[in-house]
Design goal:
About 30% of the residues lie in helices and about 25% in strands. It has helices at about 5-15, 30-40, 70-80, 90-95, 145-155; strands at about 20-25, 45-50, 60-65, 85, 115-120, 130, 140-145, 160-165. A hairpin with a 6-residue loop joins strand 2 and strand 3 (about 60-65).
C-alpha cells in the first residue's frame, strides 16, 4: 500500500504527465543501503541533505552524487551562506512533510511557502535519470532528468542552483 507522501508525489507527477518507474522495497536509511536498490532501478540514487544557516532562516535541499563527500565550509561558500549545517528532523517535517531518510527532490511539492531552495552538484543533472524516494524511504522513483528540469521544477516555480562539489 502506498503511503500518503508516495501517493501525493505520484499524483503530482501524473498531473504533469511525467512518466516514471516506481520500485517498492524495505525501508532504507543510508546511501549505502541504497546501493542494492540502484541495481534494480537502473540508476544512481543521490544524497539529499536539508541544510540551514545558524539563524535557521535559510534552507537548502542539497542533491549530490552518493559517492561525493559533503564538506560544510565548501558548500557554504559556494552557496554564499555562512555556516550551513544539517537542519533538524522537526524542520524537515514542518517544511517538507518528510522524515530523515526519505528526503528527495520530490519533497519540494510539500513546500507550499517556498522556504527551501534547491542546490545540486553539477553531476546530478548530467545523468539520464534521477532516482529518488517519493518522500518515503520504502519506494524509489526513476524519472528522466529532463522531465525534472523541464517540467517538474518549473511547475513548482523552483530553479536549481548548480554548484561543483
Amino acid at each position: 500500500m502506498q503511503s500518503e507522501n508516495t501517493a501525493a508525489v505520484c499524483s503530482f507527477l501524473d498531473g504533469l504527465g511525467i512518466k516514471y518507474n516506481i520500485f517498492y522495497h524495505s525501508p532504507v536509511q543510508s546511501i549505502e543501503e541504497c546501493k542494492k536498490i540502484e541495481e534494480v532501478v537502473g540508476g544512481e540514487i543521490c544524497k539529499n541533505l536539508l541544510l540551514t544557516n545558524s539563524a535557521q532562516s535559510v534552507f537548502y535541499l542539497l542533491m549530490l552524487k552518493g559517492d561525493k563527500r559533503f564538506v560544510t565550509s565548501e558548500v557554504s561558500k559556494k552557496l554564499g551562506s555562512s555556516r550551513l549545517s544539517f537542519a533538524s528532523a522537526e524542520a524537515m517535517e514542518k517544511l517538507l512533510n518528510t522524515r530523515p531518510g526519505s528526503l528527495s527532490i520530490t519533497s519540494l511539492i510539500f513546500d507550499k511557502d517556498r522556504k527551501v531552495s534547491l542546490a545540486a552538484d553539477s553531476e546530478v543533472f548530467s545523468a539520464e535519470y534521477i532516482c529518488c524516494h517519493p518522500s518515503e524511504n520504502t519506494a524509489t522513483l526513476r524519472i528522466k532528468t529532463s522531465d525534472i528540469v523541464d517540467i517538474f521544477l518549473p511547475a513548482l516555480g523552483v530553479t536549481a542552483e548548480i554548484i561543483i562539489i
